[in-house]
Amino acid sequence: MKNIFILIILTGLFSFSFAQNDSISDDIDTRMEDIISNTESTEDADFTIVTDFLQDLLRKPLNLNNASREELIQLPGMNDVLINNLFEHIANTGELTSVYELQAVAGFSESVVQGIMPYVTTDARPKDIDPNRMHPAGPPVSEVRKGMQYEFIQRASTVLEEQKGYGPVEYNPDGSEKSHYLGSAFKNYTRLRARYGQFFSFAITGEKDAGERFQFKDGVFGYDFLSGHAAITNYGNLKSLVIGDYNIQTGQGLIFSSGLGFGKGAEVIAATKMQQRGIRPYASVNENSYRRGIAATYALKQFYFTGFFSRVAMDGSSSYSASDTLGTDENVFSGFNLGGLHRTTSEFEKRRSLFQTSTGGRIEYKGKKLIIGTSHLYQSFSTAILPRINYYNQFDFSGTQNYLNGLDVDYVFQNFNFFGEIARSRSGGMAGVAGVMAALSPKVDMTIHFRHFDKDFHSLQGYTFGEQPRTLQNETGLYMGLKIRPNTKWVISTFYDYYKFPYNRFGISFPSAGYDFLAQADYTIRRGTTIYARFRVDNKEYSADSMPDLQRLDYLIGQRRTQFRLQFQSQLAKNLMLRTRLETSWFSRENEINARGFLLYQDISYKLGFKFKITARYAVFDIKDYNARIYAYENDVPGSFSIIPYNGMGSRYYIMLNYKAIRGLDIWVRLSQTRYFTPNNTNGVNNNLYFTPNTIGSGLDEITGSTRSDLRLMVRYNF
């Protein structure tokens, strides 16, 4: 408790000791915090797609007078209604002469304008682009060659304490080695990328996860994962051409999706609609969310034609003989291993154990207010996928082939944006989403979103808005969101989402249902100083636990998770930002004692001139039950995203230093540490029910002691 009181006192002193400055922060991590923290796992989305785009715009802002819909939709706070209003404003009054003129465009509130201001400009139209052409020619090759920008990134991270998997090799009684990590505890990442604006991109990326060997089994020296691409974009009628690794995101993500989505959270309106990015080069390191081969989009007037071919090596899981099922001794896989980790002998043996070949295409009509398209995908696997049948997976994908066909539409009518997609897989299962976003008045926005996925619908790489955004199967839901701006100082956001699962799920032996509710009120005290309060309830049904005699109880019980958050943030000066957050959580389940959680942290971000910046946090938490865990976003080095599940009883801090050594060269050092108060077992009471006493983590990641410290280093050189 002493630590908590000290933190509260320091918070009060810092929060009111400095004068307000009206400057606008251009820090991408700060602007992404609210969006990213809405998801509880960084594996659900490849956020580098967004951050790379915004980092480019900080160096070369987007011209609002000739920007495309695909570019504008990636700006913070933008949606199709605002984009349509902007296009109409330019058509009626001429090109914008100042970014501040956006305040005269319908729907562009002060917060929207302030949010996009660092990334946009209204400079004159480039001379090489003809405004009367539907598909303007790109810059000449000589200009691309001269204006090419290069970026080199080297990143490394490790846990400072010794983890069980890296200790001395131990042996079983029969003389065989016990499971252990094959490589070092360092995680390494390297990327070299060359870009010229939106027109050209070339990249090579390599990554070795902690525990993986840097030298492979066959003696080849290199990273465990390598990715690369060469891409051309918006060269006249050729809208996209990518050779190498890429993603496709169209419609509402039922068929083609990059896995980018922010889920349910404080952004109650825009989150329901998936952004249509088309073909995009891939430069990240998620080993299971990309395609490898060639893809292209070519436009003829308002019709866009897309085709692609891909062949990707994947990790299979639980290989076994299917003699009982197939009548042969053929080996099959029970599913896919999506972790991308190859640290132990068993994990390494599954590496690149099957291949996915996919091909397909899309035909799309793009009008000023109407987009309609049809998508087609065929997939085949080198080895059959046959899940081991149990009570919850009888309708999962099985076999060696799958195909999907779908139709999507996106229509803007005045202040209403209607969107949706319907798709069918090879199994005959159907899926559909339909939604509308509307600006009912300058002060009120709303959205309604409906989704339905049959229990036998199979989209193996889809991602759309829902309770289970990656598992587009066995779900029906209705979401309603509302955002009200009574005046320039208040914003009130709320949503209610009701969903049901018509068939069994893992851990649930019957059809079940649930709901999710959020209400948040934001108040701007003055420019740069805000406070908000958030209340959220998530209620689901689960099967009752077994009786002592292991007899399963044939009924469902409710499980509720309630959270309350209060946050204060102030840009106290041009070079100083403070953020304070208090959050509590309650977890309850029938016939069990309620669990509760508490988290309090203080953030500080300080810039010392143009060369040095420090970002830090100190947090205290008391959360003895993992079910009451609290997630919190942490600032990290560019390209890395940390969303930490606070659990147990203790404190945590991180400090990150950014130094601009010379022009184009940036260096980051980040140290974080979690410390549990006293050993995890005090007077016979375990302070951290998720871990065994006196340890942190589990399995080969287990640490003996009460602290875990992470060190991350990064160098970025732009030239």
Report on this structure.
The N terminus is likely disordered. 11% of the residues lie in helices and 47% in strands. The protein starts with a helix and ends with a strand. It has 719 residues and is mainly beta. The strands form 6 sheets. The chain has a 24-stranded antiparallel β-barrel. A two-stranded parallel ribbon has the order 1-2. It has a two-stranded antiparallel sheet with strand order 11-12. The protein has 9 helices and 35 strands.
Keywords:
719 residues; mainly beta; 24-stranded antiparallel beta barrel; two-stranded parallel sheet; 9 helices; 35 strands; 11% helix; globular; disordered N terminus
Describe the structure concisely.
This protein is mainly β and 719 residues long.
Q: Helices and strands in order, then pairings?
A:
Blueprint: H1 2-15, H2 28-36, H3 48-59, E1 62-63, H4 69-72, H5 80-93, H6 110-116, E2 120-121, H7 141-147, E3 149-159, E4 187-196, E5 200-208, E6 225-235, E7 238-249, E8 278-281, E9 291-300, E10 303-314, E11 316-321, H8 323-326, E12 331-336, H9 345-349, E13 354-366, E14 370-385, E15 399-413, E16 416-425, E17 430-441, E18 444-453, E19 475-484, E20 490-501, E21 512-526, E22 529-543, E23 556-573, E24 576-589, E25 595-608, E26 612-623, E27 630-634, E28 642-646, E29 648-662, E30 665-676, E31 681-682, E32 685-686, E33 695-696, E34 703-704, E35 707-718
Parallel strand pairs: 1-2
Antiparallel strand pairs: 3-4, 3-35, 4-5, 5-6, 6-7, 7-8, 7-9, 9-10, 10-13, 11-12, 13-14, 14-15, 15-16, 16-17, 17-18, 18-19, 19-20, 20-21, 21-22, 22-23, 23-24, 24-25, 25-26, 26-29, 27-28, 29-30, 30-35, 31-32, 33-34
